[in-house]
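Recap slide: Protein NRT1/ PTR FAMILY 6.3-like, sequence and predicted structure.
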Amino acid sequence: MAVGIGTGMAAGTSEFSEGFEAMSSWRIPRHELAHLDARLNASFLDHAAINEDPAAEPSKWRLATLTDVEEVKSVVRMLPIWATTIMFWTVYAQMTTFSVSQATTMDRRIGPSFQIPAGSLTVFFVGSILLTVPIYDRIVVPVARRLNGNPHGLTPLQRIGVGLALSVIAMAGAALTEIRRLRVARDEAVPAGGVVPMSVFWLIPQFFLVGAGEAFTYIGQLDFFLRECPKGMKTMSTGLFLSTLSLGFFVSSALVAAVHKVTGDRHPWIADDLNKGRLDNFYWLLAVICLANLLVYLVAARWYKYKAGRPGADGSVNGVEMADEPMLH
């Protein structure tokens, strides 16, 4: 028996097509359709698979297969997660720009004659990743495995959440460090463009926090998009992930331009001479934005439903179906 979809639609006029060759012979029972909608959401997309005119010439622009609809639904459900991970890479952009600029105004001497190149401070990204990975493997994974039964420790969404939280802490820490740097510059009456008598190693915590956040976010994003992208769109998974990196840098540029336009006339936050600016306010602004973004992410992750089964204690995926469990996972 064919089942119609939509109010007032005749029961025999609506058909879901699995393929254009068998477009008029494949039907879906109402109880199966209800389960499908509950599992995938975005039920408005079902209309793309409704054959309202069986006599019309088949066209993929007019009628989609149910498989196509399901794949588009999966991508739509991932978009909130995708959007809320962009801000991490906006924070990352500050470490390669303003934090390096801060380093040029600080005491970079080691010993009587050697000076650390300001740009080389990004090596602490690598160092923090190398330190974070074994800590995660040796400490976090065993503890998380006992708490949630996941053999991999944290799930992709949990790892991304940790990375976003670290970005908030990093920006707050960067603001506090900049407040101290400006205070020292003022107390020591440092001239324009002069070097503040404050060790450059004060910047290490913010580099370390963002680097550790990258270890969680990068791997979490890659795992999430590879796992959740539909089989027919696997090539799109890496593109979704990499687009968050590029958009993060674009957002950073737009944010800097907006801040400079608003504050540039009287008391610029971002000045050519950082000793005369208020970079700490810019860092606080980023911390607030990242915190708001984290809260939105937690809501999105809380209600996201994985399409695959949850791995059991033995690493199998024949356990509980995660599609029916809205939770932060």
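The chain has a mean pLDDT of 77.
The beta strands are 106-107, 109-110, 114-115, 196-199.
(End of recap.)
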